Amino acid sequence: MRHRGAFLISAAVLLVVTLFLNLSLGAIVIPTSTILSAFLSFDRQDYAQNVVLYQRLPRALIALYVGALFASSGSVLQGLTRNPLASPATLGISAGAAAFVVGGVMLFDFGLEAQGFAALAGAILGFLASLTMARFAGLSRDPRGLSLILSGALVSMLLIGLANALLLSDPSRRADLLSWISGNINHVYADRLFSVWWLGAVSLGLLFALARPLTLMSLGREQAASAGVNVDLVTRLSLAAVMVGSGSAVAICGPIGFVGLVVPHLVRPFVGQDQRLGLPACALTGAIACLLADMVAREAFQPFVLNTGVLLDLLGGLAFLLIVKRFYLAGGEAAR
Amino acid sequence: MIEARGLSAAYGDTPVLFDVSARFSAGRLTALVGPNGCGKSTFLKAIMNFVPVSGGAVTLDGEPILKIGRRKLARRLAYLPQESQCPDYMTLGELVELAGYSRYSLFGGPTEGDRELFQKALGVVGLEGLAHRQVNRLSGGQRQRAFIAMILAQDAGIVLMDEPVNHLDMTYQYATMSLVKDLTRDHGKTVITVLHDLNLTLAFADDVVMMREGRIVAAGPVRETVTPETVGAVFDLDADIFERDGRLVCLPRMDARCRTLAA
């Protein structure tokens, strides 16, 4: 228990360090003293301080927000479905949110708040579509849950295809969302963050409150019910929190896949299965992962700037293969 | 005391339990026995309301079980599924602590009394000192005892177990059943368990409910209920039941019907 607490403290310290690096490194390197000045005694005439407050800080806050939300959501989904491949990206949630935001903007000219609610509706619809398709495909006779993941992949492809078709249908208006649809952490989306951040706060608060019953549900629905968990209520509330949290993250910067899938696997060997530690650990590690990925995407390929979502998708594809090998293929360490 | 009256259940359009009634006395170990698919596990799940119940009712000390909230019910009734699974990295200590969930407040945790109970539960199953070990790294027998410790830590008076000795070798089967027997004898629990092995039933159970095709064929104290006639009626098997050193033994006869099935 002690070393698990130490992991949380280390992750918190690392998050602060990564945040400072994120604010400091870039086309111009900004010293710590200037960063502190930007916060404590902002000088409007100082170019570096303007870069910190109006470019790098919003971008870092977006990375922090989406990293924490996607990673926590992935951890909850993996526990609820008892499926190591479950995440907002693999269960149609991110794609549903993205398709509805694109649809809302292209067809109905939605403003920022309306986009947040469209993302929420899309997240719910994407997940329900994946679940329904998996049930048709025989989910109840598939204890390893592959039908759910395959259905999620299919629904995601369909929804992202639909979103892309809508984007291509109107060249004059697609510029705003063309980069967003592939997951783009960018300071220009700061308004989106400020309009939906409270949804993420509510989502995380609810998930933390449900941490203990969620841990029990990783033992199975019957075992959890036997111990006194109202399984249906906890499932509905936590799924609602996941939809709200991941939907709002997608509404800000588009679908980002790697974090929700992989961070829970990275964190578990250090903090175990207890979601009271696992959820904060996932939130911190997810935030660190997104801040680091954002720095790499921004700086590693200069003069080009890569979309963070594209970089994370590349890493996520590799991680997906490793998880499949570990949990599903014969000879894998945890294959049963 | 727990009582089922006229309980019926179905999986979709397939009925599996027909008008089953049974009364389980406090402080006794009752075995549910019968051939595969006869509805033993469904009976336990119907008591827990884990399967859609199409008729009948279950009462706990006269109170309808459906009117008791999940948390209150967990303090009185515990259930151990057939294939208890534990996720990777969960330790024995965490597993046992989770069992006390029904007693914790929303953000609270175990009290000193709870912690003493957890230690005692681990001691009873012989796993004291292993609280920090991952459950999935324990041996099969230790794992089963870990889940029995969880049941003890839940501290419910009535315990339902679905084949607690499944997949265990003979030594662990007898060790586990001795432990289950101790729950009734030393801890005053009422245990209702599904068992496949009639000899384990004869060795450890006080009462037996014999089922076939979703119905109860015979029920009562083991010595009076398990007879060659009831075994034949439930399992379609000719068997000798005899006493040796004060213990009943059931020995099936290898007649032509057995050989045909074996082939």
Automatic annotation (TrEMBL), chain A:
Membrane topology (UniProt): Multi-pass membrane protein
Top-rank taxon: Bacteria
Keyword Membrane: yes
GO MF, one annotated term: transmembrane transporter activity
Entries under InterPro entries matching the protein: ABC_BtuC-like, ABC_transptr_permease_BtuC
Keywords: Cell membrane, Membrane, Transmembrane, Transmembrane helix, Transport
Transmembrane residue ranges: 60-77, 89-108, 114-134, 146-168, 196-216, 237-258, 304-324
Name of the protein: Iron complex transport system permease protein
Organism: Fulvimarina manganoxydans
Subcellular location: Cell membrane
Family indicated by similarity: Belongs to the binding-protein-dependent transport system permease family. FecCD subfamily.
Keyword Transmembrane: yes
UniProt-listed Pfam families: FecCD (PF01032)
First-listed, main subcellular location of the protein, grouped into a coarse class: membrane
Assigned GO CC terms: plasma membrane
PANTHER family: ABC TRANSPORTER PERMEASE PROTEIN MJ0876-RELATED (PTHR30472:SF25), FERRIC ENTEROBACTIN TRANSPORT SYSTEM PERMEASE PROTEIN (PTHR30472)
UniProtKB/TrEMBL annotation, chain B:
GO molecular function terms listed in the Swiss-Prot or TrEMBL record: ATP binding; ATP hydrolysis activity
Domain of life per record: Bacteria
UniProt keywords, alphabetically: ATP-binding, Cell membrane, Ion transport, Iron, Iron transport, Membrane, Nucleotide-binding, Transport
Pfam families to which the protein is assigned, alphabetical: ABC_tran
Name of protein: Iron complex transport system ATP-binding protein
Organism listed in the record: Fulvimarina manganoxydans
Family per similarity comment: Belongs to the ABC transporter superfamily.
Protein topology in the membrane: Peripheral membrane protein
Family annotation (PROSITE patterns): ABC_TRANSPORTER_1, ABC_TRANSPORTER_2
